[in-house]
Amino acid sequence: MSIERIIKAAVDRGASDIHIKAGDNVRARIDGRLVALTKQALTNDQTRAIAQRLLEHEEERQRIDALRDHDCSWAQPGVGRFRVNIMRQRGAFSIVMRVIPENVPTVESLRLPAVIERIAHAERGMVLVTGVTGSGKSSTMAAMVNTINAHYEKHIVTLENPIEFLHGDIRASITQREIGIDTDTFRMGLRAALRQDPDVIMIGEMRDTETIDTAMKAAETGHLLVSTLHTPDAQSTIMRVVAMFPPEEQSVVRIRLAESLHAVISQRLLPRANGTGRIVACEVMIVTPTIRDLIIENRIGEIRDYIADGNVQYGMQTFDQHLTDLVNSGEISFETALGAATRPADFELNFRTLSRGRPAAKQVQSDGLQQEAWAARAPATAPGAARPVTEPHPLGTGPTMPPLATSPQGITAVTSPSPLGNPKDSVFGSGFENLFGS
Description:
Layout: H1 3-12, E1 17-21, E2 27-30, E3 33-36, H2 44-54, H3 58-62, E4 69-76, E5 80-89, E6 92-100, H4 115-120, E7 125-130, H5 137-151, E8 155-160, E9 173-178, H6 186-193, E10 200-203, H7 209-220, E11 224-229, H8 234-243, H9 250-260, E12 261-271, E13 278-286, H10 289-296, H11 303-309, H12 311-314, H13 319-328, H14 334-340, H15 344-353, E14 363-366, E15 369-372
Parallel strand pairs: 7-11, 7-12, 8-9, 8-10, 10-11
Antiparallel strand pairs: 1-2, 1-6, 2-3, 4-5, 5-6, 12-13, 14-15
């Protein structure tokens, strides 16, 4: 049976990644879990032959035994498009293939917060999409590029390794450059992009200090720049960017970052409560004058509270606020949300008190003790009862208290069924004697 048929079977079952390794059977990541697709393990020669087939250029195929780490893309009609990483482990070949959907996603199709579409309409500034590997950063950036492409007559330059989503020109003109083929490095491609009359620049990843420095220059000179970092949330993103520079430069970097940064979108993919598929949870920070001052004054630790306070006015939200919304809508279980929360104890307390993820009370520090700043002033009311109209609700939700959420004790854990049915069954029978047959 050909490897193409195995890959096609994985795609048909909704796989996001396919793992091919010598000494192991072929596996696919489905709904976040690695599931075996075959019964028999691959040999070293079989894995090498698969790697050679996935390489795009004859020159690369000729020097396959010299490859140690190699990124490329692979497409097959009727199978799909993939981002491919070929590596060595214990001297043998190993391959990880990321499935790239054929259609460019939209903000709506990804079910991202509506504020992200507003961020895509920005004229200038730096937008960072962050999260761990496999959290959907590339899809979010592609959705933002798609929004710009659908609304503006602009020149968009992308630097990717490799090119993933293929964008057609709608209203914008899009130039997609692949690292290693169209330009040597992200750094060189970004420096060249500034001379290519761009309005928007998208960088697949900012990997070093020089690339970040050039990216900030691009944002400072009036371009909209979108890129990614492997950081878990907005606060750590700012700290990571600053920490990449020498200590003597960090005060100046904070000033430059405060002036050039427009927004940070951090995301995590979580399993749905019904056991099928995953959904994105987002933290969204828009750089307001207050947050800009906090960055300059190196008061990064206070930013999360200002993100929470800006939910109504700016559309910002913390992870814990979005997690509460997802639990209340039934998208994810309370246990899943609690495990993904930035502050699990505070999340559980707020969830028991409010139906939305706004802080139950503004916490202030006094002699090392946490005190309730406004909760003590609020008159006791029954759940759902109207508050006095003489004093607006501190959360900005009007004269009535938000309804209480269902107690998490009443929520039961959801056991996800195997996406392939009986785990003892595999997609294909044993034997790879016809692995490369027609």
